Amino acid sequence: MTGPEQKEAKVKNCDHTSVGMVVRQGDKMLLIERMKYPFGFAPPAGHVDGDPSFEIAARRELTEEVGLKATNLKVIFEGRKDNSCRRPGGTWHEWKIYEVEVEGELKRSADETKQAGWYTKQEIEKLAERTRLYLAGKISDEEWQANPGLETFWFKWRKELKVF
Predict the structure, then answer these.
(1) How many structural domains are present in the chain?
(2) CA distance 20 to 90
(3) In this structure, are residues 30 and 20 in contact, taking their beta carbons and an 8 Å threshold?
């Protein structure tokens, strides 16, 4: 199988299970800028994808996206949220969000992230303001993809989670 058929065969359907990892370093929080939809800055996150547990998926995603090893995970949220993803059928997810202690050196995934770094509360507020403008229709989709704010899903969630 070659060409479009091969590409189609690699597309995964949404498994409706996702993990997110809130990682801090002093007064800063780890955010990545997503290379693929949904565009924007967000904590590392991803689908469970058949891992035996949400915790194992969280550890895997953290290492895949930013090269860090989770040393301690504490669940800070679990439940269903309506949110879209790029996978077919991805309109909602059963989430577990962890506060994570890590070790290792930050090294972003060249396949999944444009950048990864530690952001202050003030820097996160600037990203949130950009998202507010985008959601109000004052920033085009093209501008957003070139220079996004917080990923819209995490923007809506940040007050509920009270983590950034």
Answers:
(1) 1
(2) 16
(3) no
- pLDDT tens track for 141-162: 999 999 999 999 999 888 888 8
Distance between CA 93 and CA 80 in Å, rounded? Answer: 6
Task: Decide if 7 is inside a domain.
Answer: no
Output the CA torsion sign for 138, 140, 144, 147: negative
The partner residues of 28 in beta bridges, in order of sequence, read 25
DSSP state at residue 77: E
pLDDT digits (tens, 9 = 90+) for 73-95: 999 999 998 888 888 888 888 99
Helix or strand (DSSP H, E) at 128: helix 121-135
Does residue 4 belong to any structural domain of this protein?
no
On whether residue 138 sits in a domain, the answer given is: no
Burial of 48 (0-12, 13-18, 19+ CB in 10 A): buried
pTM of the model: 0.89
Q: What is the dihedral of CA 19, 24, 27, 29, to 10 degrees?
A: -50
Residue at 63 is within a domain: yes
